[in-house]
Every structure is written in C-alpha cells, then in structure tokens.
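Protocol step 4 of 5: obtain the predicted structure for the target chain.
Materials: sequence only (see below). No template structures provided, no constraints applied. The aim of this step is simply to have a reference model before the mutagenesis design in step 5. Sequence pasted as it appears in the construct record:
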Amino acid sequence: MNKPSTVIAAVRVRPFCSRELDTEEAIPVVSMPKAGVVCLHSRRPSGTSTRQFVFDHTFWSCTRDNPKSSGDENSPTSIPYADQAKVYKALAFPLLMRTLEGYNACLFAYGMTSSGKTFSITGPPENPGIIPRLVDDLFTQIAKKQSSECDYTVEMSYFEIYNERIRDLLSDRTNQSSGLTVREHPTTGPYVEGLCRLGVRSKTDIMGWLRVGNRQRTVANTTWNDQSSRSHTVFTLFLTRRTVAKYPFGDMIENVYNSQINVVDLAGSERQVSSKPVDNRLNESCYINKSLFNLGKVISQLARNNAPKMDLIPPKTDPRGQTKRKDPLEWYTPNRWVSKKSGYVSYRDSVLTWLLRDSLGGNAMTAMLATISPSAQHLEESLATLNYAKKAQSIVNKAVINEDPQGRVIRQLIAEVNRLRQESSVRCEPGSPQAYEVARLREVLVARENEVRELSRQLAERSFGTQPASPARVSSCGTASTIVPTSPDPPRAPLVDQMTSPIITTAPCNLLSPTSHTPVRPQRIKIDKPTQSTGCGTDPVSVANQSTHAIVSVRDVSIPTQNMFFCNPSVHAQMRREIERLQTGNVEALQTIGQAELRIQDLELKNHALQSDVLYYSKLSETYRVACDTLRDSHEQSIQMINTLLQALLRRTEEWQLVTTAFMEHTVHDDGSEHPAPMETLFNGHECMPAANET
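Step 4 output (structure tokens):
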C-alpha cells in the first residue's frame, strides 16, 4: 500500500538557561499565540516586524510566568506547558504505531547548540525523553498484539557520525578511527556495513545498551553547553513481524513484515563568533556545520522539487517585433500547473544525508522536532531553524508496508481467487443480472422457435390446401386437363430449385425446417403426360379434376399431382423471408448464450489456474520453512559442539595451569639445595621418578 505523506514539523521552545538569565536580554522573542503558530519578533528597538510561522505542532516549554513578547504586547505566551510526555504523545507515538503496521519511520531533532535536542530525545532518568518512552510503549504494544499467529522480533543499533566517520557505539572494538563504510542495497537502500545489530527482549536490555553507547559518545564542554554533543547519533529499532494465516485451501501461509524506526539526535549548529571554539573543537564545529549545511541543502532541494511549478505567459509582440508594454503582473499570470521532472538531490554530499535518504523523500514516515531558544541572543539561529522546519514541511514521502514479496504474491493470488469465486457465484446465483439475462434470452429463443413452427404450419396449410377452381379455367366439355401444358414434343426435365419452384412436392417439411442450414440442391423434376386423351382440347390454364393422371417425378420418385394447386409466389416469398429472419434471430440468441457460457468457462479456468498457483507457492513456502528448520537445527548443533569444545579447552587450560604451577615449585634435593623440577618429571600436575642421568 502506497501512502504519500508530508514531513511532520514541530517546534519546541526551551526555558532560559543560567547564562541567558544573567544578561539583560532575558526577554523572550518567541511567542505562541495559539496552537500551531510561532511568532518571532525583532529585537531591534526601531524594528516592529514579526515573522509568523505555522507548523503541525508547537510546544511551549518555557517556564517563565506570563512573559510578554518584546514585539507584540497583545500576544500572550503563557500557553499550557508542554512536558516530555506531551511531546512524545504528539510526535513519537504515532510513528511507533505505523512502525508496528510495517512502515518505516524516522524522528530527528534539529536546532542550534544548547537548544534542548538531547534533552527531548533522551532526557534525564527522572524526566525521560522520547527514546525511553518509545521503548516502553513498544514492548507494551507487542505484548498486546503477540499471539500464536503473530510474533515480533526486535533488534537495535546505535552509532554516531563524528567528523564524517561512523563509529559503532555498541561495539567493543577500540580501533574505529577509520570508521565504518556506508553501502547501498538495491532494495532497502543505504546501510552501514559491519554495524552491530543486537537482539533485545525488554526495555531493560535496550536501556542497558543505551547506557553503554552513551559512555562512548563524543561530548565536550563548550561556551553554551557543559555537555555538548559533538556528533550526530542515530538510534534504530528493527522490527520483524511474522503472521501465520490459514486460507481456504487448508495451508498455513506465513507473511513477514520488516520495519524500522530511526531516532536521530543531530549535533547543534554553532556560530564560531559566539561559541569561539579552538583546536579540536574548531575542527569538530567545521564538520558539524558542514553536515548540517548539506542537510539543509537537501531539504531545500526536496522542497523545491515538491513545490508546484507554473508556466508563465510571455509578453506579446507586435508585427514589428517590438514588445508591447503590459503590466508586469500580467506578464507572469499563471497559465496552468505543470509537472516537471524532479531535480537532482545531493544526498551523497554527506554521510548523514546519505543515511537519511529514505527518511527525506523516500520510504518512511518522518517527523522533525525543531528546538529553539527564547533568548534574543539567538534570534538569527532561531530564525534559520524555523525556516528549515518550514521547508521540511513540503517534503513528500512515499511510505509503503515492507512485506515479504513471496507472502505478498500469495496473498494477492488468494484475494484474486476469492474475487473470482464471488464473481462466479454471483453470475450463477438466481436473481442476479447475469442469470436474468440468460433466462430472458432463453425465453426469446423459445418464442422464436414457436413462431417458426407456427409459420411453417401456416405455409404447409397454404401449400397443400384446396381452393375453388376459377370458372374461366374450366373447359367447355366439362372435363379438366392437367396443370401441365401438353406439347407434341417429348417433355424435358428442367432443373428447378425446390424453394423457388411453383410446384410444391408432398414433402416440404425438410425444406422449411427451421433447424436446417444446408442449402437446397436443385432437383430434376420430370412431368409425364397421361397416356389417354380426354377428347377435349388441352387448356394450359385449366384446373385438374379428380380424373387427371399427370405425374410429377422428383428424384425418380413418381408423385401424383391430384389436388395440388399453386401458392401465391409473393406470399410464399414473404413467408420464406420471415422464416429466415426468425432463424437469424434464433442463431443470434444461441450465439449470445454460447458467449455467456464461454465466459463462465473462462472464469472457471482462471479460477483453477489461480488455485494451482496458490498451491504451488504454498508448497514452495513449506519447502523454505523446512529448509529454515533444518538450518536452525544445524546451527543449534554447531553451537552445542562449540560449547563442548570450549568446555574441553577450559579443562585442558586448567590442567596446563596445574602443570605450570608444579613446574614453578622448587624441589628440594638431597644436598639441601632448591632447584626447579625438570619438565620431563611432570605429567598432569604430578612429579614422576627422576631421570636416569640424575640418578
């Protein structure tokens, strides 16, 4: 799940320190008239300008009673006091909950030296800061969420960036002058090679290791702070959540979520004019200001890339090429919003910005705590800090849940199978639109078939029915001739199509069947005259009576033409067209039903294919699980073997110590002199018989 979010910016104002209270400028130049608003007032006597900033959170931790701003007498600053718990609940606790869901998170404190960054991040034991409260709530939430189907694993790391070198604060290696190396992983991003990651199970473990790391942290006494941090420290908690879910196929599928939360305590920016560093402090100050400058540059570049850009309408020109004079405001009227390619961001200019790449514009949810001083002496530093925090608000991160790809694919396939099953059941469910459409098409098909049968029956009745003979066609002699005109020449057998011939045979059903699609072949029809004449003239248009003996031969089958009359050709053609139209509609209805059945079969095939994929990935996951169990057993056996070897080595060491002790003891000989016993006479800590040469 992609979750775009901006950097959360918060500002905290610390109390006055002892050095600031001793001066005449112990009047705050910072005020917070309401939540989320910070006002910075000018300290110049003639200046009345006030800079106002809006942030996500504001914390007033200045403990002076009802202080009045030097720039605006109407803006009260006695807003509710923000303690350590309030700062943690507003900033760190939401990040912790997102981390438990699988997102990466980062919280870093930014500000000038002695502005209260370390106090807010760590705090003293009697008033703990963000990290102790974060660790406490972490294990509380894990205890609530952990079950037989959900398991959490927590690891930690703690390092500092001193003079652009990384030092591991949890390692016992004394020689770290060269520093650790930062590497780039193609998937997870930058990481520190060789950094210690320790597994922890409780708050006590983490706080114990933090005390170990803080003892190795680089701090020094400066003009503004007795315990000033001379390096950037990064405290990281790595969370691994394993969930096991049972799916309809009966397989237990494990999903793994990896997330981390970084808490960064940055070193304070220093103005060398006011702090007056010398020797090593000056070198440290240069590195600190350089890394903070690169951090500010990265923040500015990201803010510029995320800011909306506008196309500008250029001034129009007349045909002579001269620019028309227009109001300058009209020249730069916004035309439309455009999305241009993001510019380059110089992450690798500093180790700090390289490691914080995912936290600034990457895969993380980030919060920035800007700490400022209320004193007028630090007005410029406070203004720079507020400007950086305001720029950081426009940085957009794209945090995603860090899920194992294999588990994600299996979960997506199972969701697709469930969706197809539901869709298939809805299609086949009575009362659904698809079922209604199929039923309607079947009804139309039945109605068309009935209509075809009725028209076929009417056509057959008209073809074989008897009609009264016309008087004009009756011969004067009272006898009737056949419907076929006589000719002295022998009759010819013409090729006549059964569908277009005016002569209708006694078997028309096959020709008019609605289910027949085979084209009718032309039939050779032969008409034989009767052998005896009636004695009257033969009239070709007279109607045959019961005594006619004309024979119609179709495919060498003789059929008498008694009681056969002509059908009206126009009516016959109209009925034939109607039958063809109904047959066409019948075919279309059958095709629609066939297409619906093909779609259902296609969905069933997709469903079976997805089931096969899910079973395959389930078996693959089971294979991986068995392999991991085998490796775990081998690892445990190796550990047991190592422990056995260590015990044997300890026993051998003890035996060697006994031998050495016995060797060092002096042996008293017969002459009363003391000499050390020779090595050849010692074995397993006991003296043996003297050698032959000594005897």
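Step 4 remarks: The longest strand covers residues 232-246. The chain has a mean pLDDT of 74.
Proceed to step 5.
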